[in-house]
């Protein structure tokens, strides 16, 4: 099914469906996420069985602040979809997709690592890429690019990045 | 320090830290200072005991740490293995030792400079990273690179695929003991790197594919070099096959090892040669063609055995298919001519480079044009080089078929001159999740064979 | 760029100081000193510390085309206890830094460090939270080889300069 056909099929349930540049994006509430994933996976005309990834984008001036994007792919029909969930800054928690898609495991850990979004129900939500004990969530827009201490001998200080190209 | 001598297997679930706990010794203005003289700071190996006293037999499982500095882990991958004798009971990969913060860095530099960052993620397939990024930004802009640029992109990508598979072959051979294969793989790779150097100027991490096309056209003589390479390569691949394919040691170590069936692979998010070796024919080049791939003739190579040997066969045949595509590219390029950068002055990189007596530099004709002939061209050049492209709001996800699987770039723009969010869905990141599934239950020596058949590149995994 | 072979150029000591030191050590010890330095530089064994893209270029340098075996260095020892050279090839992240220090500490004396590539030398293009801006804040570096990644010839030039440094420095440090 093309993106437009998919959009027509899902618009009844989730009215905030956008097709832009040939790609389908379905905007969901946090509570609808798991039922939507299940429907996308199990319904035969959708059959999104390959979970490609989940990531987040930080819009610090907008409400909701964090926008998760789930990428899905169907092996049988060869179509793609993106699910988007908006989370507010004071409660960045969302149910984990690992129950439905085991592939979501490390992607959710990485998103937690970078943004601090808690995936409830994840079996092992720890930092993945940054060292254990790292205190900040670096990919948030409120975090600086540099200017952190090296953690090791002599404490050589990495100066903040000079933003030369404004 | 944590007492690691009396841990239980459950502590495998909590990451064994290789770092001292913060607060070991803190100086002024420093969060934590690593003190290498602390004797128990680096105690990697621990033993756990589970005693079965009823039968009078004491069983011990050993927790062994493999990596991150290890000759066989394909880069800085760390594995925590719980072993019962030689059998792996549990395997926990720990990654992040090469985390570079590429995604955050792209948010601070103009769109064009994103290519230089993105290309260093999966450093064995730089052209794929660059092309995916360029395609994503072009999709946001709504432009398409000219046809000659697309053909050259395909040519370079397929040569890169062959080079990447050669590194896989070299390291896989070396890790399983066939050390001469390492030398052969790198010997062939030097030929390809010579071609890359002639075309782009660099052997690795080229930053050649740009938004809207390419930096420059192919130099004279490059296509002849590619033709020479195409003449030489099939014989070399036959050499590898005759060396390895029926070799009893190779067969024994690879057949039946690290089986990952198709359904499990899909559930774990695995793509690429691992998936194709399990019988599932998924290839982005055929399913969602980009850069004109629908006009080329090539087959998607699959096998059904889903073990390490099948992956070996898949990659060898993929090298042959790539050469077929390169052949078609070369014939098209010899017959065509044209621009390699899109014409729009608000999008295309304005500089026209040319090889002069002192190396690559701005072509004198172009300098004459902007300095003497057209004020508007000068203004466009100035704005493009200092400010950069301005990309409309939106988000896209563009997949390409990298040597390791589906590489997807998820790019978000807020309408400005810098990317708002660039996320690389790297194939090795998802493939590595399947590693415990393939390794548990096997021997520790099979772990090495499995890792080399998964072919992870830690730069892509950690970004 | 041709290598200049000026006496004492590389270690910064003047020719007169060299003679004085020679006289101080005595002629016999000098010959022994030189012989030991020569033996040390002739077969330095690197430890496998390839991290990122520079590691691939390091492997290319060790492969057949640009052969490291001509200086006895094709044997990359996996165990730091059996090696005397650490070529830090690639970007060192915050998580990897203690591992780097451990491996360096596990190497027996005499040992040398080549920092290969700009990422290892000063952080490279990644001026951010994740990368150590130069491994010389963690281990003492003898030779810095710039490049992103450095060509095999550049790495070989760095290795040759290290050999000269080892020969000039002598065993009494």
Characterization of this structure:
The complex is a heterotrimer of chains A (166), B (463) and C (173). Chain A is α/β, with parallel strands linked by helices and 166 residues long. Chain A is built from three helices and seven strands, in the order αββαββββαβ. Chain A has one domain (3-129): 2-Layer Sandwich (Beta Polymerase, domain 2). Chain B folds into three domains: 9-94, no CATH class; 102-338 and 393-462, Cytochrome-c3 Hydrogenase, chain B; 349-388, no CATH class. Chain B is built from 17 helices and eleven strands. Chain B has helices at 102-106, 114-118, 126-141, 147-176, 179-200, 222-244, 248-254, 262-267, 273-277, 284-287, 308-335, 364-373, 375-386, 427-433, 435-439, 444-454, 458-462, and strands at residues 46-52, 57-66, 78-84, 87-94, 209-210, 213-214, 353-356, 359-362, 394-402, 405-413, 421-425. A four-stranded antiparallel β-sheet of chain B has the order 1-2-3-4. A three-stranded antiparallel β-sheet of chain B has the order 9-10-11. Chain B has a two-stranded antiparallel ribbon with strand order 5-6. In chain B, helix 4 runs antiparallel to helix 11, helix 6 (222-244) runs antiparallel to helix 11 (308-335) and helix 11 (308-335) packs parallel to helix 16 (444-454). The longest helix of chain B is centred in the middle third of the chain and has 30 residues, at 147-176. Residues 1-54 of chain B have low confidence and may be disordered. Chain C is α/β, with parallel strands linked by helices and 173 residues long. Chain C has one domain (44-165): Rossmann fold, CATH 3.40.50. Helices cover 40% and strands 9% of the residues of chain C. Chain C is built from six helices and four strands; from the N terminus they run ααβαβαβαβα. Chain C has a four-stranded parallel β-sheet with strand order 1-2-3-4. In chain C, helix 3 (53-62) links the parallel strand 1 and strand 2 (85-89). In chain C, helix 3 (53-62) packs across helix 6. Chains in contact: A-B, A-C, B-C. Chains A and B meet through strand 3 and helix 3 of A and helix 1, strand 9, strand 10, strand 11 and helix 14 of B.
């Amino acid at each position: 099914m093309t993106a437009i056909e998919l959009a027509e099929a899902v618009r009844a349930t989730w009215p905030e469906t956008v097709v832009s540049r040939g790609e389908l994006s379905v905007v969901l509430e946090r509570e609808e996420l798991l039922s939507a994933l299940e429907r996308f996976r199990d319904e035969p005309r959708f059959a999104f069985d390959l979970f490609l990834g989940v990531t987040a984008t930080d819009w610090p001036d907008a409400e909701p602040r964090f926008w998760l994007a789930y990428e899905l792919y169907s092996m049988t029909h060869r179509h793609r979809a993106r699910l988007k969930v908006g989370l507010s800054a004071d409660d960045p928690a969302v149910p984990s997709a690992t129950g439905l898609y085991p592939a979501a495991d490390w992607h959710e850990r990485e998103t937690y690592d970078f943004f601090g979004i808690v995936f409830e129900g994840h079996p092992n939500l720890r930092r993945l890429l940054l060292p254990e004990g790292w205190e900040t969530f670096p990919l948030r827009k409120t975090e600086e690019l540099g200017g952190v201490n090296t953690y090791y001998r002599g404490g050589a200080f990495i100066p903040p990045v000079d933003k030369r190209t404004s | 320090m944590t007492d690691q001598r009396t841990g239980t297997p459950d502590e495998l679930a909590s990451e064994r830290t290789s770092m001292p706990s913060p607060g070991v010794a803190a100086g002024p203005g420093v969060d934590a200072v690593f003190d290498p003289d602390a004797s128990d700071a680096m105690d990697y190996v621990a033993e756990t005991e589970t005693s079965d006293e009823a039968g009078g037999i004491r069983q011990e499982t050993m927790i062994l740490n493999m990596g991150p500095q290890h000759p066989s882990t394909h880069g800085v991958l760390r594995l925590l293995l719980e072993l019962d004798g030689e059998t792996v009971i549990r395997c926990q990969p720990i990654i992040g030792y090469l985390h570079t913060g590429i995604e955050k860095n792209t948010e601070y530099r103009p769109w064009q400079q994103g290519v230089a960052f993105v290309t260093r993620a999966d450093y064995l397939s730089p052209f794929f990273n660059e092309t995916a990024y360029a395609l994503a930004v072009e999709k946001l802009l709504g432009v398409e690179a000219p046809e000659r640029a697309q053909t050259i992109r395909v040519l370079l990508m397929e040569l890169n695929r062959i080079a990447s598979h050669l590194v896989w072959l070299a390291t896989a051979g070396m890790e399983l003991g066939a050390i001469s294969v390492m030398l052969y793989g790198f010997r062939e790779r030097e030929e390809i790197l010579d071609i890359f150097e002639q075309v782009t100027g660099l052997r690795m991490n080229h930053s050649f594919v740009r938004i809207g096309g390419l930096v420059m056209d192919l130099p004279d003589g490059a296509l002849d070099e590619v033709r020479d390479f195409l003449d030489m390569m099939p014989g070399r691949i036959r050499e590898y096959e005759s060396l390895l394919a029926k070799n009893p040691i190779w067969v024994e170590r690879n057949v039946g090892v690290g089986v990952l069936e198709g359904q499990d692979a899909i559930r774990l998010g695995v793509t690429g040669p691992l998936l194709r070796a399990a019988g599932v024919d998924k290839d982005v080049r055929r399913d969602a063609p980009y850069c004109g791939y629908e006009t080329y003739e090539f087959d998607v190579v699959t096998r059904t055995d889903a073990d390490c040997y099948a992956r070996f066969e898949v990659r060898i045949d993929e090298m042959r298919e790539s050469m077929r595509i390169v052949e078609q590219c070369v014939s098209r390029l010899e017959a065509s001519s044209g621009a390699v950068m899109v014409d729009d002055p608000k999008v295309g990189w304005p500089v026209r480079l040319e090889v002069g007596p002192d190396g690559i530099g701005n072509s004198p004709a172009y300098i004459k044009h902007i300095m003497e002939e057209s004020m508007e061209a000068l203004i466009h050049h100035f704005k493009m080089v200092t400010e950069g492209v301005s990309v409309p709001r939106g988000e896209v996800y563009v997949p390409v078929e990298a040597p390791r699987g589906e590489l997807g770039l998820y790019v978000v723009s807020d309408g400005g001159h810098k990317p708002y969010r660039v996320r690389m869905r790297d194939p090795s990141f998802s493939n590595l999740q399947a590693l415990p599934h393939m390794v548990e239950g096997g021997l520790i020596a099979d772990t090495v064979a499995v890792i080399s058949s998964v072919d992870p590149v830690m730069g892509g995994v950690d970004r | 760029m041709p290598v200049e072979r000026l006496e004492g150029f590389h270690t910064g000591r003047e020719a007169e100081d060299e003679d004085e030191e020679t006289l101080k050590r005595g002629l016999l010890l000098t010959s022994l000193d030189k012989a030991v330095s020569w033996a040390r530089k002739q077969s330095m064994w690197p430890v496998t510390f390839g991290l990122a893209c520079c590691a691939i270029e390091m492997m290319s340098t060790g492969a057949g085309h640009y052969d490291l075996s001509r200086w006895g260095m094709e044997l990359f020892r996996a165990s730091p206890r059996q090696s005397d050279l650490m070529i830090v090839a690639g970007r060192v992240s915050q998580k990897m830094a203690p591992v780097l220090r451990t491996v360096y500490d596990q190497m027996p004396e005499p040992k040398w460090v080549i920092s290969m590539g700009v990422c290892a030398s000063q952080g490279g293009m990644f001026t951010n939270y994740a990368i150590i801006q130069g491994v010389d804040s963690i281990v003492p570096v003898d030779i810095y080889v710039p490049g992103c990644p450095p060509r095999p010839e550049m790495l070989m030039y760095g290795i040759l300069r290290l050999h000269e440094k080892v020969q000039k420095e002598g065993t009494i440090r």
